[in-house]
């Protein structure tokens, strides 16, 4: 009791002290970290039902190890990422004291109250996403002070008042989304590539067909002032136009003007987007992504040395790298990429994927492009992949005990729910398997490779027979038709659950005993015979929860039904794993089966689909330890 009293007194003292005197330095002479104080104040204003902020501790002197907090190489808090964490409460004005923040991602929660005007003090901020909450009040005029802002998403809240005129003063905006609020007043001219205000009746009117999204299609790589940033370009264009106008007439001069503008725009775009002559401008990037030079990544991977390979497969090769500041990264070098004409599309899709931020998704740190290369840079995952750790042992015990396996299932499900139901547009992974689920330092599941299929789709989306994935994980309808949906991911997740239960690969199960090597067929048979214990990973030595085993097997079998319309959505899968609604779903599925007498006698095996498929299937093993 005395210890608790002392700690409460200390917390109160630190907060009061910080309120009295705030320093611009991270540490005061007394050793207080003001970023810690600010983060704890933010935590105290939020309701956190799942304790995702549990390790935000006022007694800590370093917040860089805290969950959802990212720090820059010099040790300052640079990103706060708390999307889709079921948070409520209000956003504390203390966030304005995290003056080195570049990214704030709080979307898809239930945070209410006003948007703090203190956000306008974050001079380094590039991404601010408060969408899909319940914020009220007006948009702070102070947001116009965020001169480095690239992305501003305040959509799907309950904001009122007018769009601040100050936002029109921010140059270089990529996206401003104020849609689905209760804004009123006149609409400001925001110089953003995309500016959305649909769903504000007082601005857009009440007609359902009235799309009042204002889109100003300025190219992402072109400065807001166009050719003013090219020294002398305006004078040259004028002189050329006059000269040609005098000789060939006004019409031809217009053609020349347009040609010059297109050429200048292409030249400027190429200089910004491509790694030309290894010149690197650290100010040039995409939102909160860093742009790396090929030379930098070449050195980090020791010239893409084969000893640094973490994994390889259909999309490319992954290398472990060490940057100049000592940061460990995973560098994915895409292969067979369609370079011609793809630079703008690649840039746009990298930009889109970078906005998919969730604690259970692999975060994209940056990218590199040259005329012959496309590389993506991710954090290095010290505990590798689920596939690799399933076979590892520590002091004679499996690295993944039953509790960790259940936690991995839950984390993976949350990541897929975000991709399917909370991303706009939604993202289908298409290769959910143990090798693509990575493990951070706390053995938290991180879904990897979710953006690669999307990045390559523009090259071969018309080829429905180019099935991507791994045999044993691919849904039957995908094998048969080449058509994928989120239900193909649900099937893959079901196979992942069986991998976690058995500790075996999808095509390895039972081979040692001379049985058919397809995990799904074998598990179905054992389940029908009531022999669940025979399917559990022998390395667990009986240390598992038998009730949870039964539940996990049932969820896996619901996910792997051959008819995709019978499979649950990932949000339903997550609820069932958390103990809500499984009994009803399972009973309903059994009624469907018992109501079809011929189903059992002619039920197909998954191996039949594999043997009958005439499609080209690429077995991919990209996700080694990163």
Report on the architecture of this protein.
This protein is α/β, with parallel strands linked by helices and 626 residues long. The chain is built from 18 helices and 25 strands. The strands form six sheets. Strands 2-3-5-7-9-11-13 form a seven-stranded mixed β-sheet, with no helix packed on it. α4 runs antiparallel to α5 and α9 runs antiparallel to α12. The N terminus and C terminus are likely disordered.
Helix % is 25-40%
The helix tally amounts to 18
Estimated radius of gyration: 27 Å
Instruction: List the strand order in the largest sheet.
Output: 2-3-5-7-9-11-13
Would you identify the regions where 5 or more consecutive residues have pLDDT less than 50? 1-11, 13-30, 206-211, 213-284, 458-466, 510-516, 597-602, 614-626
> What proportion strand?
15-25%
Question: What's a concise summary of this model?
Answer:
This protein is an alpha/beta fold and 626 residues long. It has a seven-stranded mixed sheet, with no helix packed on it. Strands 1-4-6-8-10-12 form a six-stranded mixed sheet. Strands 14-18-19-17-16-15 form a six-stranded mixed sheet, covered by helices on one side.
Topology:
Elements: H1 2-20, H2 34-44, E1 46-47, E2 69-71, E3 77-81, E4 88-90, E5 103-105, E6 110-114, E7 127-129, E8 134-138, E9 151-153, E10 158-161, E11 173-177, E12 182-183, E13 192-196, H3 201-204, H4 233-248, H5 250-273, E14 290-291, H6 294-300, E15 309-313, E16 316-322, E17 328-334, H7 343-354, E18 366-369, E19 374-379, H8 386-389, E20 393-394, E21 397-398, H9 402-422, E22 437-439, E23 445-447, H10 452-460, E24 466-468, H11 476-481, H12 486-502, H13 519-528, H14 546-559, H15 570-577, H16 582-594, H17 597-601, H18 606-612, E25 616-618
Parallel strand pairs: 3-5, 4-6, 5-7, 6-8, 7-9, 8-10, 9-11, 10-12, 11-13, 14-18, 24-25
Antiparallel strand pairs: 1-4, 2-3, 15-16, 16-17, 17-19, 18-19, 20-21, 22-23
């Amino acid at each position: 009791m005395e210890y608790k009293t002392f700690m409460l007194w200390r917390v109160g003292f630190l907060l009061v002290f910080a309120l009295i005197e705030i320093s611009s330095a991270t540490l005061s002479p007394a050793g207080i970290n003001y970023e810690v104080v600010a983060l704890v104040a933010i935590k105290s204003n939020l309701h956190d039902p799942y304790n995702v902020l549990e390790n935000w501790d006022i007694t800590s002197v370093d917040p860089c190890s805290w969950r959802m907090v990212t720090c820059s190489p010099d040790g300052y808090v640079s990103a706060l990422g708390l999307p889709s964490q079921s948070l409520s409460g209000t956003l504390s004005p203390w966030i304005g004291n995290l003056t080195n923040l570049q990214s704030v991602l709080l979307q898809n929660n239930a945070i209410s109250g006003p948007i703090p005007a203190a956000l306008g003090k974050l001079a380094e901020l590039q991404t601010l996403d408060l969408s899909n909450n319940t914020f009220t009040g007006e948009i702070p005029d102070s947001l116009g002070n965020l001169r480095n802002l690239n992305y501003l998403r305040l959509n799907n809240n309950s904001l009122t008042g007018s769009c601040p005129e100050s936002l029109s003063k921010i140059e270089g905006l990529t996206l401003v989304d104020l849609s689905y609020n209760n804004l009123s007043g006149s609409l400001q001219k925001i110089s953003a590539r995309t500016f959305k205000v649909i769903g504000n009746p007082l601005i857009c009117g009440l007609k359902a067909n009235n799309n009042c999204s204002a889109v100003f299609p300025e190219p992402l790589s072109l400065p807001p002032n166009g050719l003013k940033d090219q020294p002398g370009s305006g004078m040259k264009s004028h002189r050329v136009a006059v000269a040609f106008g005098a000789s060939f007439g006004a019409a031809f001069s217009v053609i020349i003007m347009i040609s010059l503008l297109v050429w200048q725009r292409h030249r400027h775009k190429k200089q910004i987007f491509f790694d030309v002559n290894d010149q690197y401008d650290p100010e040039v990037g995409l939102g909160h992504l860093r742009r790396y030079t090929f030379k930098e990544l070449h050195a980090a991977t020791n010239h893409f040395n084969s000893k640094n390979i973490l994994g390889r497969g259909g999309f490319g090769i992954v290398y472990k790298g060490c940057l100049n500041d000592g940061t460990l990264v995973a560098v994915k070098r895409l292969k067979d990429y369609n370079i011609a004409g793809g630079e703008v599309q690649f840039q746009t899709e990298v930009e889109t994927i970078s906005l998919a931020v969730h604690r259970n998704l692999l975060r994209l740190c940056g990218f590199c492009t040259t005329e012959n290369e496309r590389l993506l840079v991710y954090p290095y995952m010290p505990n590798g992949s689920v596939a690799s750790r399933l076979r590892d042992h520590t002091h004679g015990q499996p690295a993944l005990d039953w509790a960790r396996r259940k936690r991995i299932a839950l984390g993976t499900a949350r990541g897929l729910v975000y991709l399917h139901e909370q991303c706009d547009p939604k993202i289908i992974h298409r290769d959910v398997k143990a090798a693509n689920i990575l493990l951070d330092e706390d053995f938290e599941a991180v879904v990897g490779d979710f953006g690669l299929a999307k990045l390559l789709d523009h090259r071969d989306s018309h080829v429905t027979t180019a099935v991507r994935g791994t045999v044993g994980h691919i849904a039957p309808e995908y094998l048969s038709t080449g058509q994928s949906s989120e239900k193909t991911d649900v099937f893959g997740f079901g196979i992942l659950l069986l991998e976690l239960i058995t500790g075996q690969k999808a095509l390895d199960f039972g081979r040692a005993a001379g049985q058919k090597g397809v995990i799904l067929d074998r598990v179905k048979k054992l389940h029908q015979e009531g022999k669940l214990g025979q399917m559990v990973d022998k390395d667990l030595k009986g240390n598992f929860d038998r009730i949870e085993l039964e539940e996990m097997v049932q969820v896996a079998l619901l996910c792997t039904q051959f008819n995709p319309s019978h499979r649950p959505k990932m949000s339903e899968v997550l609820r069932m794993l958390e103990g809500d609604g499984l009994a009803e779903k399972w009973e309903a599925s059994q009624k469907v089966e018992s109501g079809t007498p011929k189903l059992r006698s002619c039920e197909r095996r998954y191996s039949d689909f594999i043997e009958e498929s005439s499609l080209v299937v690429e077995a991919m093993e990209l996700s080694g330890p990163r």
